Fold HECT-type E3 ubiquitin transferase.
Amino acid sequence: MFRRSKSIKKTSKQIEVISHSKTPGDEGEQLKVRVEDKRKSITVTVETERLNCLCCGMVLDIPKTAEKFKCCVCHVTTYRGGQTKSETYKYKTSIDVDDLAVIVKNCFNDIVERKNEMTQEEKYNVFNPVNDYIDAKFRHHQILENSFPGSSPLVDSDVNTEQVLRFYKILFSLPTRRPYFRMLCRMNDLLRKANHNCTHFRWLIIILMNPGLRCCLIGKAQGGFDSQEIRTISYELLKRSIGYLSNLDRQKHSKKLIKYLMRMPLSCFKEQLEVLNLYLTFQFSKIMYKDNQSVRTRIQPRRMPSDGMELVNNSTYWNYHLSGSDESPNINGILESKSSEHGQKGKSVPSGDFKFSPYQYENDWHILSVTKLISFFFTANQKRNISCLQSENNGLLDTSTFYNTILDFIDYRKDFDNWRGKPNRLHFVQSKEYDGNGKQFTFCKYPFLISLGLKISIMEYEIRRIMEYEAEQAFLLSLDKGKVIDVYLKVRVRRSNISSDSLQSIKEHQGDLFKSLKVEFVGEPGIDAGGLRKEWFMLLTKTLFDPRTSLFVYVPESRLIWFSNSAQNEASIPDKETMELYYLFGVVMALAIFNSTILNLHFPKALYKKICGEPLKFDDYAEIYPETAQNLQKLLEYDGDDFSEVFALNFETTFINDMWEINPKNIKKYNTVELCANGKNMSVTSSNKEEYVKLWIDFYLNKNISTTFEKFLLGFKRVFSVSKSIKLFNFEELQRLVCGDQDTNKYDFGMLKSVTKYIGGMNENMPVAKWFWEIAQEWDITKQKKLMRFVTGSDGVPATGMSTLPFKLSLLGSSDSDKLPIAHTCFNELCLWQYRSKEKLESKLKWAVTESEGFGFK
C-alpha cells in the first residue's frame, strides 16, 4: 500500500502502477507509477525492496524511502528502522501489580467514604485513576516488555506468570468493565503498529496470557466481561499476537521463543496450547460457513475434545468477514446464535461427509500462523527435558494433547498428495526420492496436529494405492511377457518350519513386498481373506521369540523383550542365518503394519524410538532394566566426599553374552567392555558420574546391539522404502500401530457391543446374544484374550480403540446343538448355535477358545 508523497498535491485523484521490473545486479526492484490529477499526469520511478509483514507474513514490495508501510492483508502498520537508545530509556518504566492494587484499593475506599454523597456520574468516574494508570503503562510496547520479570536475573526473557495473572485478576474484580476495555484498546493500538526491527516477544506473551481472550472463541467470560465490544477486540489481540509470534522465525528469533516456552510452567504452557487449538478450530469454522452454507441443515451435535469450543452459525457475519475483509467479526452474535440452534451445551462439528479442501486453508494466514506457532510449542515440549538423564514425565505433555480433531474433516487424500509431491498419480514407487518438504502448506508437515485415527487413514490410503499400482504393473507385465505373474505377495509355509519357510518366501519375493499379502499353510484347506494372514503373523512372531533362537532376551525384572547382548568381537557376532532372522523380523513387523495386522509384542518404547530416530533417555533404560536404573539413580544422587571409596567404579561394564548358549566353546559367558577409551583406568568420580551413566545407557541401548538392530531396521525399511506416511507417526503412535491399544487391562466389551453387526438371523435381543455379552464381560483378562484371538486372530485392540473393530455375531441354527461355536477370523465373525442355556454356551465357548488352533482341532 502506498501513500502520496509530500511533493504530490492532495488534489491527485489516481495512483497507477504501470510497470514492475527488477534492477540488474541488485535485489531491489523498480516500480513506475503514474499519478494523475485534473491538470497533469506525472510518471515517477520508485525503488522498492521486498519485505515480509511482521504479522501475517505477506510478501510486500515497499518503497525504500518509505518510513512506514501498511499491510493490505492484516492492516498492520510497520515502522522502518530500529528502536533508538533514547526510546528504550524513555520507556524503561514497567507495570507494578502492587501499585495497581493500591490504586484500586483507594478507589474502593473513596466509594465507601462518599457513598451517600456521590452522584451517578461520580460513581462512574471513581475508577479514573485506574484508567490513567492503564494509559500510562500501555503507551509503548517497551513498557510491557519490561514488566513482570522472572525470578532469574540471568534469563531476561522469563515472565512471572503469577504476577501477570494477578494483574488481570485485579481488573476482572472491578465492578466496571471500563479499565479492562481500555487496556484491550491500548494493547490493540500497540499491535497495529509494529517496529520492523523489533525482536522482543515478552510483551506478546503477556498479552496472550490474558485469560479473558478465550471468551471470543468459546462464549464464556468472567462476570460481565462478555460484551460484543470486548469479544471483538479480544479476537483482534489474539490474531495479531499469534501472527507476530509465528513470524519470529523470519527474524531468526524463534529459538529464543522456544527456549522461553521450555521454561514456562506446565499449567500455563498447556493453557496457551489449548487457546491456540481453539483458535485453529475457530478458523476452520469460518471456512465451513463461507463455502458450505447449506451444511447448516446437516450439522449434528457432537462432543469435541477441546473443551468449550463451539462452531456457530451466523451467515451475516461469515459473508462479511470472509468476503476479503480482515476487520473484526461480530463475535457476540455468532456465539449467541448457537444456543438457539444447538442448546447451551451443544458442541457442533461438521457432518461425516463434509471435507475441507486444501485450497480453502492453504493460503489462510490465520491458519498458517497459528499452525506455525503450535509447532514452536511442540518443539519446546520435546526439549523441555533435553538431558538424557532426566525423566520424560516431568513437565512434558502427552502427544495427544496437540491433536486437533477438526482436522479429521480435512480432505486428507489431497493434503497428503500435496505433501508427497505427486498429486493425482499412482506412481508412488517412482517418487521415493521426494522427502515431503515442498513449499506448499499441508497439515502433513505438522503431523503432531493430526489425530492417530486420521494418520492411520492416510497410511491406509497410501498403502492401498501402492498395492493397486503393484497389482496393475504385475498384470501389465504378465500380458507383455505372456506368463502369469502374481498380483499378491504369496507366502507358502509349513507349520513345523514356519521361520525358515517364511524367510525363504520373502527372499524369493523381495520385489513383491509392496503387494497385498496372502498366506497358505501347506496341507491345510482355506483361502486367505485375512484370517490365515493373522495366524501366520502370530505363529511366526512366537517362533522368532523362542529362547532357543537367542534373537531376543526376556528381561524378568521388567517382563519385556530386548535384543540379545553380544560382545562386539568376531566370535560373538551372530552367524549369517541368525542375522537373516533379524532381517526377517524387521520385514514381518513392517508387513504387519502394511497389512493392518496387530502383533502381540512386548518391546519397550526404546525400540520404537530407535525406529523413529528419536533420542533415548534415562527412562527408556529404566523401563527395560528398572533395578539397575535404581542403582544408577542412587549413584547420581550421592554427593558425599567419599564417593570414589563408596562406589569404586571404573568406566567399564560387565554383562552376560546371550550368544554364549549357542556357541559356548568360542564365546565367553561374561564379558567386560570399556565404556570409553582407556575406561578401565578411569575412575568414576562426583564430577564425571553423569558422563558415566550416559555412556552406560548408550552402551546397552545402542552400541551393544548396533549390529543386530541395524539388520532388523534394514528389513523394516525395506518394506517402507516407498511409503512416506510412516513419517507421520512418532514412537508412541508407532507402538500403538504395531501392538494396538495396550493401555488397558480389560477389554471394553460394552463399546464392542455397541458397534457389533448381527447377521444370519441373529439379533441383539435373542437370549444367546445377551448371554454371550454377559459371559464376555464376566471372564477374566486371560480368557478375554483367548476369545479375541479365537474370533479375530489377534488379542490386540486396534490403535484407535474397540469402537473401530468390525465385529459380527451370526446364528448357525434355530435349535439347540452340542457343536462348538465357529469363528471366521477373516471377517471378525463369531457364529453361535442357539444353545438352550447360558451355562451350556459358556462351556462350549470356553472349549472352543482354549483348544483350537489353525483351521482344524488338535
Observations:
- The CA atoms of residues 657 and 664 lie 10 Å apart.
- The longest strand covers residues 41-52.
